[in-house]
What we know:
Number of strands: 18
Mean pLDDT: 92
CATH class of the largest domain: Mainly Alpha
Oligomer: single chain
Number of helices: 3
Helix content: 10-25%
Strand content: 35-45%
CATH topology of the largest domain: Arc Repressor Mutant, subunit A
Number of domains: 4
CATH architecture of the largest domain: Orthogonal Bundle
Amino acid sequence: xxxxxxxxxxxxxxxxxxxxxxxxxxxxxxxxxxxxxxxxxxxxxxxxxxxxxxxxxxxxxxxxxxxxxxxxxxxxxxxxxxxxxxxxxxxxxxxxxxxxxxxxxxxxxxxxxxxxxxxxxxxxxxxxxxxxxxxxxxxxxxxxxxxxxxxxxxxxxxxxxxxxxxxxxxxxxxxxxxxxxxxxxxxxxxxxxxxxxxxxxxxxxxxxxxxxxxxxxxxxxxxxxxxxxxxxxxxxxxxxxxxxxxxxxxxxxxxxxxxxxxxxxxxxxxxxxxxx
Length: 276
């Protein structure tokens, strides 16, 4: 079966004036236009293509790789807006359409927007939606506390940053857990810090509790090595200084240097910490 909106590996079955006809194992055919025909090919060769609908709503193949595929998220640039909606650059000749009803905020040419790509059941076309929360579901969680998860930064809130968790759920990183600049669309790894009532997910960009000591200790050791064995930081340093230097909270910093001191890897003095 040829799948719309995804990469397909198909077989070249015949050559035509307009390009190559390629097919799946069931004999379903699609045209690969001349502009995408490889320089060297043989009948029965297999080729990986992306399939979508052309301007006349017919399935067509391309060897170009889009910036987003079916049932996935991406940040795309808006190229044009007309009376029907916005047209987004997704790396293909025909732009990806986002109707007005699927825009969380009215899109403008030149703007960048986090979108979800799906198939419109009425038209069978691939379309975009910036109302990404509509495609997330926390009713039945597939994650547990302390699980490592993949994140996509979604949008800010008054108390932190909303994130997409494993492309399935919504989650939140609180402001006091953010120690670096985040931009919409950033892809990160995090930890499920807590599951609150209503299956609300609290996410941490670091590991939790004692799991957090080891990576932070390694980071401090690396920083000491990069700075000739000395850091002008102590357990009495301002939290903002620690955050700026090491991208971690003062609490985690104190835990980490405590561990390193017990292991006799560092010396803690009034003016800073020293590599032993």
